[in-house]
Amino acid sequence: MKAKKVIDFLAETGAISSLMGMIVAVTIQIFSRLFLESAPAWTEELARICFIYTIAFAGGLAIRKQAYIGLDYFVEKFDKKRQMIVLSLVRLAVLLFALVLCYYSIPFVLIGNSETSPSLRVPMSYIFSSLLILSLLLAYYIIHTLVLSLKSKS
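Below the sequence we write its predicted structure tokens.
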């Protein structure tokens, strides 16, 4: 249970930090466009990177809180047993997607070692790592949700 708290804390802190970074970058961009002669080019790139990381960290949290859009209308037409089967199949499909994404994101991150971002000159592997973070958090929270649903069933 302690590991879950650490992962929750890291995901929440990452999502909030990257969202705040995006807000600061966009605010600097707006201020510069309105009151200065030119806006710094790096703010747009930083805002984009922060947005990507916000999604990466918040994706798993959305699964934890069951905040994704679902087709409840159709699922509620089934009896309780079939509802559990459908939800378990959907969760397994998402888990499969997350694992495939994780597998293919590793070589993608490694490719990024040889490139840097245009304005910030940050290695692209840091930016591409967001895919790996997203897939790992999705897989972790889906597994956690599946375990909880199996425990509640028994």
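The radius of gyration is 19 Å.
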